[in-house]
Amino acid sequence: MKILVTGAAGFIGFHLVKSLLDLGHEVVGIDNINDYYDVSLKYDRLLELGVEKESSSEFYNISISKSYDTFSFVRMNLEDEEELGSLFRDNNFDVVCNLAAQAGVRYSIENPKVYIQSNVVGFLNILECCRYNKIKHLVYASSSSVYGANSKIPFSEEDKVDTPVSLYAATKKSNELMAHAYSDLYKIPTTALRFFTVYGPWGRPDMAPMLFANAIKNNQPINVFNRGEMERDFTFIDDVIEGVVKVLETSIKERKYYEVYNIGNNKTIKLTDFISEIEINLRKEAHKNMLPMQLGDVKKTWADVSKLINDYQYHPTTEIKAGVSKFIEWFLKYNK
User: Fold this and answer.
1) Catalytic one among 36, 68, 115, 168?
2) Residue 59 above 60 pLDDT?
3) DSSP for 37-105, written as a single string
4) How far apart (Å, rounded) are the C-alpha atoms in residues 16 and 230?
Protein backbone atom coordinates (compact mmCIF):
# COMPACT_ATOMS: atom_id res chain seq x y z
CA MET A 1 0.00 0.00 0.00
CA LYS A 2 0.95 3.64 -0.37
CA ILE A 3 0.51 5.28 3.01
CA LEU A 4 0.71 8.89 4.19
CA VAL A 5 1.98 9.28 7.76
CA THR A 6 1.72 12.75 9.27
CA GLY A 7 3.91 13.58 12.25
CA ALA A 8 6.60 11.33 10.76
CA ALA A 9 9.42 12.93 12.76
CA GLY A 10 7.53 12.45 16.03
CA PHE A 11 7.92 9.64 18.53
CA ILE A 12 5.11 7.34 17.37
CA GLY A 13 5.28 8.54 13.76
CA PHE A 14 8.96 7.65 13.41
CA HIS A 15 8.44 4.12 14.75
CA LEU A 16 5.38 3.62 12.56
CA VAL A 17 7.16 4.74 9.39
CA LYS A 18 10.07 2.40 10.07
CA SER A 19 7.75 -0.54 10.72
CA LEU A 20 5.69 0.09 7.56
CA LEU A 21 8.83 0.39 5.43
CA ASP A 22 10.25 -2.84 6.86
CA LEU A 23 6.96 -4.52 5.93
CA GLY A 24 7.35 -3.38 2.30
CA HIS A 25 4.87 -0.50 2.14
CA GLU A 26 5.51 2.76 0.27
CA VAL A 27 5.41 5.68 2.70
CA VAL A 28 5.30 9.45 2.40
CA GLY A 29 5.95 11.20 5.70
CA ILE A 30 5.25 14.81 6.57
CA ASP A 31 6.12 16.88 9.63
CA ASN A 32 6.55 20.58 10.34
CA ILE A 33 9.52 20.01 12.73
CA ASN A 34 8.16 22.56 15.23
CA ASP A 35 10.22 23.55 18.25
CA TYR A 36 7.84 22.39 20.99
CA TYR A 37 10.84 20.29 22.06
CA ASP A 38 14.45 20.07 20.84
CA VAL A 39 14.33 19.64 17.06
CA SER A 40 17.65 17.78 17.03
CA LEU A 41 15.84 14.68 18.30
CA LYS A 42 13.38 14.94 15.38
CA TYR A 43 16.23 15.30 12.89
CA ASP A 44 17.99 12.30 14.46
CA ARG A 45 14.84 10.20 14.06
CA LEU A 46 14.68 11.17 10.39
CA LEU A 47 18.36 10.32 10.01
CA GLU A 48 17.55 6.82 11.29
CA LEU A 49 15.12 6.62 8.35
CA GLY A 50 17.83 7.71 5.91
CA VAL A 51 16.68 11.32 5.52
CA GLU A 52 19.49 13.82 5.99
CA LYS A 53 19.11 17.45 6.99
CA GLU A 54 20.21 19.84 4.26
CA SER A 55 23.38 21.61 5.34
CA SER A 56 22.26 24.99 4.02
CA SER A 57 18.83 25.09 5.65
CA GLU A 58 16.78 23.88 8.59
CA PHE A 59 13.92 23.18 6.18
CA TYR A 60 13.29 20.20 3.95
CA ASN A 61 11.44 20.40 0.70
CA ILE A 62 11.06 16.83 -0.56
CA SER A 63 13.77 14.44 0.63
CA ILE A 64 14.23 10.87 -0.55
CA SER A 65 15.53 8.38 1.99
CA LYS A 66 19.02 6.99 1.41
CA SER A 67 18.10 3.86 3.35
CA TYR A 68 14.62 3.13 1.94
CA ASP A 69 13.79 3.75 -1.71
CA THR A 70 10.10 3.58 -0.79
CA PHE A 71 10.21 6.51 1.66
CA SER A 72 10.08 10.23 1.00
CA PHE A 73 9.75 13.06 3.50
CA VAL A 74 8.12 16.48 3.11
CA ARG A 75 8.33 19.32 5.62
CA MET A 76 4.84 20.79 5.80
CA ASN A 77 2.19 22.23 8.13
CA LEU A 78 -1.23 20.60 8.14
CA GLU A 79 -2.67 24.11 8.37
CA ASP A 80 -1.29 24.84 4.87
CA GLU A 81 -4.42 23.84 2.98
CA GLU A 82 -2.99 24.46 -0.50
CA GLU A 83 0.24 22.52 -0.02
CA LEU A 84 -1.53 19.63 1.67
CA GLY A 85 -4.07 19.46 -1.15
CA SER A 86 -1.30 19.37 -3.74
CA LEU A 87 0.43 16.54 -1.88
CA PHE A 88 -2.75 14.45 -1.95
CA ARG A 89 -3.39 15.19 -5.64
CA ASP A 90 0.19 14.30 -6.59
CA ASN A 91 0.06 10.95 -4.78
CA ASN A 92 -2.44 8.16 -4.95
CA PHE A 93 -2.55 7.30 -1.25
CA ASP A 94 -4.43 4.19 -0.23
CA VAL A 95 -4.66 5.04 3.46
CA VAL A 96 -3.70 7.93 5.73
CA CYS A 97 -2.43 7.79 9.32
CA ASN A 98 -2.68 11.20 10.96
CA LEU A 99 -0.38 11.40 13.98
CA ALA A 100 0.55 15.07 13.60
CA ALA A 101 -0.72 17.27 16.42
CA GLN A 102 0.40 19.79 18.97
CA ALA A 103 1.12 17.51 21.91
CA GLY A 104 1.16 18.08 25.65
CA VAL A 105 -1.61 18.46 28.21
CA ARG A 106 0.10 21.10 30.33
CA TYR A 107 1.35 23.19 27.41
CA SER A 108 -2.24 23.50 26.16
CA ILE A 109 -3.04 25.53 29.27
CA GLU A 110 -0.18 27.94 28.52
CA ASN A 111 -0.57 28.24 24.74
CA PRO A 112 -4.12 27.28 23.69
CA LYS A 113 -4.21 28.93 20.25
CA VAL A 114 -1.51 26.63 18.87
CA TYR A 115 -3.73 23.63 19.65
CA ILE A 116 -6.70 24.97 17.71
CA GLN A 117 -4.59 25.64 14.62
CA SER A 118 -2.74 22.33 14.57
CA ASN A 119 -5.25 19.92 16.10
CA VAL A 120 -8.52 21.34 14.77
CA VAL A 121 -7.78 23.34 11.61
CA GLY A 122 -5.06 20.90 10.56
CA PHE A 123 -7.31 17.90 11.11
CA LEU A 124 -10.12 19.52 9.13
CA ASN A 125 -7.71 19.90 6.20
CA ILE A 126 -6.84 16.20 6.45
CA LEU A 127 -10.54 15.28 6.38
CA GLU A 128 -11.16 17.48 3.36
CA CYS A 129 -8.24 15.93 1.49
CA CYS A 130 -9.48 12.43 2.32
CA ARG A 131 -12.95 13.41 1.10
CA TYR A 132 -11.83 14.69 -2.29
CA ASN A 133 -9.15 12.08 -2.96
CA LYS A 134 -11.15 8.92 -2.19
CA ILE A 135 -8.91 7.73 0.64
CA LYS A 136 -9.85 4.18 1.59
CA HIS A 137 -9.20 4.56 5.32
CA LEU A 138 -8.19 7.39 7.66
CA VAL A 139 -6.59 6.27 10.94
CA TYR A 140 -5.84 9.07 13.38
CA ALA A 141 -4.41 9.66 16.83
CA SER A 142 -6.78 10.43 19.63
CA SER A 143 -5.78 10.24 23.29
CA SER A 144 -6.64 8.73 26.66
CA SER A 145 -6.95 12.37 27.76
CA VAL A 146 -10.47 12.46 26.30
CA TYR A 147 -11.68 10.45 29.32
CA GLY A 148 -10.91 13.48 31.48
CA ALA A 149 -12.65 13.37 34.85
CA ASN A 150 -14.28 9.95 34.30
CA SER A 151 -14.25 7.93 37.51
CA LYS A 152 -15.13 4.54 35.99
CA ILE A 153 -12.07 2.32 35.60
CA PRO A 154 -10.91 0.83 33.26
CA PHE A 155 -11.80 3.32 30.52
CA SER A 156 -14.02 1.87 27.80
CA GLU A 157 -14.87 3.25 24.36
CA GLU A 158 -18.51 3.11 25.46
CA ASP A 159 -17.93 5.61 28.28
CA LYS A 160 -19.09 9.19 27.92
CA VAL A 161 -16.21 11.60 27.28
CA ASP A 162 -17.90 14.92 27.93
CA THR A 163 -15.66 16.15 30.77
CA PRO A 164 -12.21 17.04 29.36
CA VAL A 165 -9.88 18.72 31.86
CA SER A 166 -7.51 20.30 29.31
CA LEU A 167 -7.80 21.99 25.94
CA TYR A 168 -5.58 19.28 24.46
CA ALA A 169 -8.17 16.68 25.46
CA ALA A 170 -10.96 18.86 24.07
CA THR A 171 -9.22 19.12 20.68
CA LYS A 172 -8.79 15.33 20.54
CA LYS A 173 -12.47 14.79 21.30
CA SER A 174 -13.30 17.36 18.61
CA ASN A 175 -11.29 15.26 16.13
CA GLU A 176 -13.47 12.25 16.90
CA LEU A 177 -16.65 14.31 16.41
CA MET A 178 -15.37 15.79 13.14
CA ALA A 179 -14.39 12.35 11.84
CA HIS A 180 -17.81 10.99 12.76
CA ALA A 181 -19.49 13.74 10.73
CA TYR A 182 -17.30 13.11 7.67
CA SER A 183 -17.78 9.35 7.92
CA ASP A 184 -21.52 9.81 8.05
CA LEU A 185 -21.76 12.49 5.36
CA TYR A 186 -19.20 11.23 2.84
CA LYS A 187 -18.76 7.53 3.76
CA ILE A 188 -15.08 7.99 4.62
CA PRO A 189 -13.90 5.09 6.80
CA THR A 190 -12.24 6.58 9.89
CA THR A 191 -10.66 4.98 12.95
CA ALA A 192 -9.63 6.84 16.11
CA LEU A 193 -6.90 5.34 18.30
CA ARG A 194 -6.89 6.57 21.89
CA PHE A 195 -3.24 6.17 22.93
CA PHE A 196 -2.40 5.50 26.59
CA THR A 197 0.96 6.81 27.95
CA VAL A 198 3.29 5.52 25.25
CA TYR A 199 6.97 5.20 26.20
CA GLY A 200 10.16 3.69 24.79
CA PRO A 201 13.27 4.47 22.71
CA TRP A 202 13.21 7.80 20.85
CA GLY A 203 10.49 9.08 23.20
CA ARG A 204 9.52 12.71 23.70
CA PRO A 205 11.72 14.66 26.14
CA ASP A 206 8.70 16.43 27.67
CA MET A 207 7.13 13.18 28.87
CA ALA A 208 7.70 11.66 32.30
CA PRO A 209 9.99 8.73 31.33
CA MET A 210 12.53 11.00 29.62
CA LEU A 211 12.22 13.74 32.27
CA PHE A 212 12.84 11.21 35.03
CA ALA A 213 15.74 9.50 33.25
CA ASN A 214 17.49 12.78 32.45
CA ALA A 215 17.14 14.12 35.98
CA ILE A 216 18.23 10.92 37.71
CA LYS A 217 21.23 10.50 35.39
CA ASN A 218 22.35 14.07 36.11
CA ASN A 219 21.74 13.88 39.89
CA GLN A 220 18.87 16.35 39.72
CA PRO A 221 15.55 16.07 41.60
CA ILE A 222 12.44 14.81 39.86
CA ASN A 223 8.98 16.27 40.35
CA VAL A 224 6.47 13.64 41.48
CA PHE A 225 2.97 15.06 41.31
CA ASN A 226 0.06 14.18 43.58
CA ARG A 227 2.82 13.00 45.92
CA GLY A 228 3.20 9.81 43.92
CA GLU A 229 -0.46 8.76 44.15
CA MET A 230 -0.75 8.39 40.37
CA GLU A 231 -1.31 5.37 38.13
CA ARG A 232 -0.87 5.09 34.38
CA ASP A 233 -1.46 2.51 31.69
CA PHE A 234 2.17 2.67 30.48
CA THR A 235 2.32 1.17 26.97
CA PHE A 236 5.58 0.22 25.26
CA ILE A 237 6.07 1.66 21.79
CA ASP A 238 6.50 -1.73 20.04
CA ASP A 239 3.08 -2.88 21.28
CA VAL A 240 1.48 0.37 20.10
CA ILE A 241 3.03 0.11 16.64
CA GLU A 242 1.90 -3.50 16.27
CA GLY A 243 -1.65 -2.37 16.95
CA VAL A 244 -1.52 0.60 14.57
CA VAL A 245 -0.10 -1.53 11.76
CA LYS A 246 -2.84 -4.13 12.19
CA VAL A 247 -5.50 -1.43 11.89
CA LEU A 248 -3.83 0.05 8.79
CA GLU A 249 -3.33 -3.28 7.03
CA THR A 250 -6.73 -4.86 7.74
CA SER A 251 -9.55 -4.48 5.24
CA ILE A 252 -12.46 -2.48 6.63
CA LYS A 253 -15.13 -3.77 4.26
CA GLU A 254 -16.83 -5.74 7.01
CA ARG A 255 -16.97 -2.99 9.64
CA LYS A 256 -18.62 0.35 10.26
CA TYR A 257 -17.37 3.55 8.67
CA TYR A 258 -16.57 5.11 12.05
CA GLU A 259 -14.75 3.39 14.91
CA VAL A 260 -12.90 4.32 18.11
CA TYR A 261 -10.40 2.07 19.89
CA ASN A 262 -8.34 2.25 23.05
CA ILE A 263 -4.73 1.22 22.49
CA GLY A 264 -2.91 0.57 25.76
CA ASN A 265 -1.24 -2.10 27.85
CA ASN A 266 -4.52 -3.20 29.47
CA LYS A 267 -3.19 -2.73 33.01
CA THR A 268 -2.29 0.09 35.35
CA ILE A 269 1.12 0.78 36.90
CA LYS A 270 1.84 2.94 39.93
CA LEU A 271 3.98 5.95 39.05
CA THR A 272 6.31 5.14 41.95
CA ASP A 273 6.86 1.63 40.57
CA PHE A 274 7.69 3.04 37.14
CA ILE A 275 10.24 5.39 38.74
CA SER A 276 11.72 2.45 40.65
CA GLU A 277 12.35 0.57 37.40
CA ILE A 278 14.19 3.59 35.98
CA GLU A 279 16.29 3.80 39.17
CA ILE A 280 17.16 0.10 38.92
CA ASN A 281 18.27 0.40 35.29
CA LEU A 282 20.26 3.58 35.87
CA ARG A 283 21.68 2.20 39.13
CA LYS A 284 20.86 5.50 40.80
CA GLU A 285 18.29 6.60 43.34
CA ALA A 286 16.03 9.53 42.44
CA HIS A 287 15.80 12.65 44.57
CA LYS A 288 12.06 13.26 44.66
CA ASN A 289 10.15 16.51 45.01
CA MET A 290 6.72 15.37 46.20
CA LEU A 291 4.25 17.92 44.82
CA PRO A 292 0.45 18.36 44.65
CA MET A 293 -1.62 17.47 41.59
CA GLN A 294 -1.01 19.63 38.52
CA LEU A 295 -3.76 21.51 36.72
CA GLY A 296 -5.21 19.46 33.86
CA ASP A 297 -3.84 16.14 35.13
CA VAL A 298 -5.75 13.00 36.16
CA LYS A 299 -4.95 10.50 38.91
CA LYS A 300 -5.40 7.26 37.01
CA THR A 301 -5.62 5.92 33.46
CA TRP A 302 -6.36 2.34 32.45
CA ALA A 303 -7.38 1.12 29.01
CA ASP A 304 -9.97 -1.55 28.37
CA VAL A 305 -8.59 -2.89 25.07
CA SER A 306 -11.01 -5.79 24.63
CA LYS A 307 -12.54 -4.17 21.55
CA LEU A 308 -9.16 -3.91 19.80
CA ILE A 309 -8.35 -7.48 20.84
CA ASN A 310 -11.63 -8.76 19.40
CA ASP A 311 -11.48 -6.81 16.13
CA TYR A 312 -7.75 -6.85 15.39
CA GLN A 313 -6.23 -9.56 17.63
CA TYR A 314 -4.18 -6.90 19.42
CA HIS A 315 -2.14 -8.33 22.30
CA PRO A 316 0.35 -6.11 24.17
CA THR A 317 3.17 -8.30 25.47
CA THR A 318 5.85 -5.98 26.89
CA GLU A 319 5.94 -5.96 30.69
CA ILE A 320 7.11 -2.84 32.48
CA LYS A 321 10.48 -4.35 33.50
CA ALA A 322 11.38 -5.25 29.91
CA GLY A 323 10.02 -2.01 28.48
CA VAL A 324 11.91 0.27 30.88
CA SER A 325 15.08 -1.76 30.37
CA LYS A 326 14.90 -1.25 26.58
CA PHE A 327 14.12 2.43 27.02
CA ILE A 328 17.06 3.07 29.37
CA GLU A 329 19.42 1.05 27.14
CA TRP A 330 18.56 3.38 24.24
CA PHE A 331 18.61 6.46 26.49
CA LEU A 332 22.17 5.81 27.68
CA LYS A 333 23.43 5.04 24.17
CA TYR A 334 21.78 8.12 22.63
CA ASN A 335 23.03 10.47 25.36
CA LYS A 336 26.68 9.42 25.30
Assistant:
1) 168
2) no
3) S-HHHHHHHHHHTT-PPPTT-S--SEEE-SS-TTEEEEE--TT-HHHHHHHHHHS--SEEEE------H
4) 29
| 258 three-state secondary structure | strand
Contact 18, 48 (CB under 8 A): yes
Structure confidence at residue 60 (pLDDT): 47
What pTM does this model have? Answer: 0.94
Distances (CA, A) of 334 to 11, 40, 138, 321: 15, 12, 34, 20
How far, in Å, are 29, 157, 164, 215, 218 from residue 284 at the CA level?
Answer: 39, 39, 37, 11, 10
Question: Dmax of the chain from CA atoms?
Answer: 56
Separation CA 290–CA 325 (nearest Å): 25
> Catalytic annotation on 182?
no
Compute CA distances 206 → 37, 133, 211, whole Å: 7, 36, 6
